[in-house]
Design goal:
single chain, 220 residues, alpha/beta, Rossmann fold, Alpha-Beta Plaits, six-stranded parallel β-sheet, five-stranded antiparallel β-sheet, 7 helices, 11 strands, 30% helix, potassium transport, NAD(P)-bd_dom_sf, transport
Amino acid sequence: MHIVIMGCGRVGSTLAHNLESRGHSVAIIDQDADAFRRLGPDFGGITVTGAGFDGDVLRQAGIERADAFAAVSSGDNSNIISARLARETFGVSRVAARIYDQRRAQVYERLGIPTVATVRWTADRMLRHLLPEGNVEIFRDPTSTVSIVEVPVHKDWIGRPVPALEEATGARVAYLIRFGIGTLPTASSVVQEGDQVFMLVTDDMVATVTAVAAAPEGAQ
């Protein structure tokens, strides 16, 4: 995949290195050329000096062939404008924006742009939005036995009851993030488009739970 990142701060540079270490092609944009020093001499991707909401700058970064775009600069307005430009003008299917204002983040979630509003776990959450495979652990109990992981769910599960997903995976859905707001599922809850699903698992069941949730119902 080719992934374009706007913002070469601590999050952007960490994200760039993580993506590159996974074998992806990376381009990173920042208005301050000195910011690229955070990448170090081993970074093999593209660096572009300029504003991430400038079409010409985005083209230099390869936005026209990009599979994903992450806006992680220090400005909410810049992040959301560039994210919408990447999606609406250049047709990038996977777009995520870092937003500092939680209330604004909820608004943009409703517009269909995944946002990350908290500082903690930002790089890992961005990886989850850009690379749908796998899962992100967000909690582990003190005995290191039970954890909560965000599990990518196949589109065929949309409209299906949460209990059906639990029965198929053998794991409990701890909570959902819907329209940017945490929701506790009930027996009558159904999976909706855009839901982020967080499940309680043990280490020995993570691979099975992930595989079942990522496949159409009944495929496993």
